[in-house]
DNA sequence: GAAAATTAGACAATCGATTGCGTTAATTGC
DNA sequence: GCAATTAACGCAATCGATTGTCTAATTTTC
């Protein structure tokens, strides 16, 4: 059974004895069509249940009102909030969003980028996967002057737009906070170092230690592949079994931080007295775990909205691709909860 | 600055001295094109970086390989996992997904449905909003023989596909479990009763009570608008301040269940000894809260995959719209954790 | 009152891929 | 050896909306 064919402006034109061009212009309130005609056309369109075919319009204009979104995994708190922000800002302006996830597999990311390109998105918003080191699959967009916005996990050098948080400062502040709470040996759960977010967080951590006259002990820095709960548990155990265990842990995400808390509790270690813990992201679980996890909050929704605005700004103003990376850095917020509060202030 | 125009099959045709139709067929391995020509065309396409214009193909075929997804909020654990499942199954078959969220506002849902329709999606997957009572905005799809799949929150009577869990049985089992654990006065946090999911959960709760010879006390059933943490807290306080408080609560979602646990603890009520609690959804927070929350797990990802399969099955086999609601009911799984475990079995 | 200007709308090309049908040329059949 | 197939490819219409250009009718101008 085939799809029924739809009612088009040609059908309307025939019915009203106007030309298709007049119908098209009338529906768009073009100035060269009389008010009377516009009223007639719109009324008939309404009655007949006419709906424009966006595919046709997009093809003709060589421009779809669709924004491509390429992420690693949709079902992660930060990502889903990001997408939510993107969608809200987009739909407000009449744009649709086409979503693709790579599941952190590089090959999928390349395939998805192609698919989004083929769909002629008017712009693309992407957050890089764990495996991604080359970004050649985004060059096709730039070549066609289609704006690319990288968000959160961004490449080092790509002449385009970027929306990030200040990972360095956030990490610096989080670590400083632990130091202020009396921690002397602070461990760090780091993520893959080819990704800016984890690299910057580590840098902030190291610099905070140095600035406060604390030694940087490489044995306290554990770099994980995926920052999963399992890795968090294993690393916590490993750290605590050494002769000189840490008295604080700055984790690159909440998943490992919560995992650390649960593991420490299981081991009978007091939090925050013996080991203070701080995470990153402000996932829902962070406020539920006991003791509640101190963390760094991402303005995920706003980041998404900003990404959309970047795309629209480029598209509507017909700007050229920026000659340099045009970067928006958003502020983070340190949320201090029980897992790191040793002193009453 | 305009978008550059792209390299098309016409450009390829000119370059290779073939007709556009031959190019088109060669790229699709059409049998009437010689292997030699196919090789030549594909090689040149690759070299020139040719990319098909999906808009053009879709317009011509009156069929886009795009599935529309209409949900209430993207950034909710269940929904984002659902979408993830939809996307995985879709991309595997070369389909894209266009996402729109209503934020639980009926007007948005109608607008989004229109937008997805205008984009000529080949099918639509929808979960109804809290406010939604009429579903006329989905009729346009059926009229055009575009498959509609309702998932989780589904309308009562719509001749189309449906993917749900067995809310009744899940609720029945959850309540029975509480009874088995010795609860005699079980409260229920119910959701809006015009939605199937909450109506069925309530029914399952009521029937389990009846079947076990317990009285159904309307004062123990609290119907909430949005099942938010705030409502959960307020309702818990209200319940516990009565002269005859409950000794168990079956909550329609995890948000209110966790909220109940936190509130009970704040009030000094022992869980599960004085009040046992069980939730619904298996959100990440449920395993983190203390005591860990017993709950009902949704197979969210699988539901998403199944939705996509339903669409593809309809599209690929060119089936007609089902004459009756064609319903897939998935099994749930009762996860028993500390919040409801009174007896050692 | 005739030329100029404005108004209202029609014509036809265009976007890029697809496909039914037609046309050669090569191959097969008897 | 000639008709009948088959193979390989071209022609041109089509999907539905958009838009530059053109035309006819009406209004304005001096």
From TrEMBL, chains A, B:
GO terms for molecular function: DNA-binding transcription factor activity; transcription cis-regulatory region binding. Keywords: DNA-binding, Transcription, Transcription regulation. Residues 7-61 form the HTH lacI-type domain. Signal peptide: none annotated. PANTHER family: HTH-TYPE TRANSCRIPTIONAL REGULATOR GALS, LACI-RELATED TRANSCRIPTIONAL REPRESSOR. This is LacI family transcriptional regulator. It comes from Leeuwenhoekiella nanhaiensis. The lineage of its organism: Bacteria, Pseudomonadati, Bacteroidota, Flavobacteriia, Flavobacteriales.
């Amino acid at each position: 059974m085939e799809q029924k064919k739809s009612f088009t402006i040609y059908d309307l034109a025939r019915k009203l004895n106007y030309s298709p061009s007049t119908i098209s212009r009338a529906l768009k309130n073009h100035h060269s069509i009389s008010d009377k005609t516009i009223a007639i056309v719109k009324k008939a369109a309404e009655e007949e249940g006419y709906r424009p075919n966006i595919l046709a319009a997009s093809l003709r204009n060589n421009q779809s009102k669709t924004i491509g979104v390429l992420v690693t995994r949709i079902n992660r708190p930060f990502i889903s909030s990001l997408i939510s922000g993107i969608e809200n800002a987009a739909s407000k302006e009449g744009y649709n969003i086409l979503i693709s996830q790579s599941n952190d597999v590089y090959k999928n990311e390349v395939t998805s980028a192609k698919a989004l390109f083929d769909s002629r998105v008017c712009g693309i918003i992407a957050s890089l996967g764990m495996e991604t080191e080359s970004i050649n699959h985004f060059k096709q967009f730039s070549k066609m002057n289609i704006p690319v916005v990288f968000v959160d996990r961004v490449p080092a050098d790509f002449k385009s737009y970027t929306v990030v948080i200040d990972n360095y400062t956030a990490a610096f502040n989080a670590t400083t906070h632990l130091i202020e709470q009396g921690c002397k040996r602070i461990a760090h759960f780091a993520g893959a170092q080819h990704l800016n977010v984890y690299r910057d967080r580590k840098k902030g951590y190291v610099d905070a230690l140095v600035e406060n006259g604390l030694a940087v002990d490489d044995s306290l820095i554990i770099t994980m592949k995926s920052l999963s709960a399992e890795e968090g548990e294993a690393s916590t155990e490993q750290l605590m079994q050494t002769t000189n265990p840490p008295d604080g842990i700055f984790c690159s995400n909440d998943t490992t931080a919560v995992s650390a808390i649960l593991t420490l509790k299981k081991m009978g270690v007091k939090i925050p007295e013996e080991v203070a813990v701080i995470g990153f992201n402000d996932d829902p679980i962070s406020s539920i775990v006991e003791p509640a996890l101190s963390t760094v909050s991402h303005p995920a929704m706003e980041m998404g909205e900003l990404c959309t605005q970047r795309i629209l700004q480029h598209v509507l103003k017909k700007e050229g691709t920026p000659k340099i990376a045009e970067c928006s850095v958003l502020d983070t917020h340190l949320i201090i909860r029980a897992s790191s509060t040793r002193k009453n202030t």
